[in-house]
Give the backbone structure.
Amino acid sequence: MKIAILVAGFPPRAVAGAEIATLNIATELAKRGHEVHVVTTGDKELKGDKKGDFYTHYIQFGVAPKTSLLGAISYAIKAFAQIRRINPDIVHAQRFYREGLAAFLAKLLNKKRYCIWCHGSDVYLPWRFKGLALKLFLGQADAVIALTQDMRGKIRQTCHRDASVIPNGIDLRRFEQLSCRSKVKSAPNGVKTLLFVGRLHRIKGVAYLIEAMTTIIKRNPKVKLLLVGDGEERQSLENLVIKLGLTKYVTFIGKVPNEKVPQYIAASDVFVLPSLSEGFGIVLLEAMACGLPIVATNVGGIPEIVQDGENGFLVEPENPVEIAERVLTLLENDDLRRRISQNNLEKAKNYSWELVVHKLEKVYLEVLK
């Protein structure tokens, strides 16, 4: 099968959830004997080539920013031109805005069948022309994929279109050599580490985690919080840490290469994701693969990954008191952490890329029948 995968960004320059997923999907599909072409954006010095077992094709933008309507149209037209040259059996759009428009053009003008895999922000967050794009691009798609049942329900509600549910996956081999949490760690001087990994953006709710630290350290001063990631909210969060007198307890690590993230996870004791909205959260799977107990908000697709009391705890968004209580419950109970750690190590096996791509392959074959 010849497959064209459309994604606006791609590693190593873009390392968000959909971009990392695309790299793993392309790699696994190629392993299965398919001819895979990734159509993405890049600078002038980047030329189309073969990365490992699959091909990459880069689109240059000129003056139109990728996030503007003009940028989306520019990407779609150039991506459509690449699709015509590739002549794939099926077009796979990661997200339904820029990529969905390109896939729609390929069907309209070249009779190419396409599927769209929604990844969260395109479904949950408001943006201009969202309603039109949903109804048009998803309505004409030969298959629609959602990451979670919650996302599937949102798609049904907004454009009356059903979707298959396939979660994101993780490369479990990245975690096999790490000192994962199969046993409760004995930290130096008894200090326990809380970890957040993600963009420092308002929607991630990091301010509420920082506020929770004021309660946590009153009961257990031997706790530190590491924030891995960067973003537009960093300065205001640093100011909040100073204001609350938490400079001894909170460390901003900044952006780190994706391949180093598992090292931070394996060296921590509890993973916290205080998002106000979240489509899926690959980082939750990574925490599970290291056996970390999780405290996360009860929003979006998170409850389909974290079962309260089984492999972590769910809290309400914007609630630093509840975050603090759940974190302290985990830190003060070694047996509970040990049980949740083992549950997560087992649960992570359900999200291998081999299993995920096997399900995706079935969708492709159904479309091409």
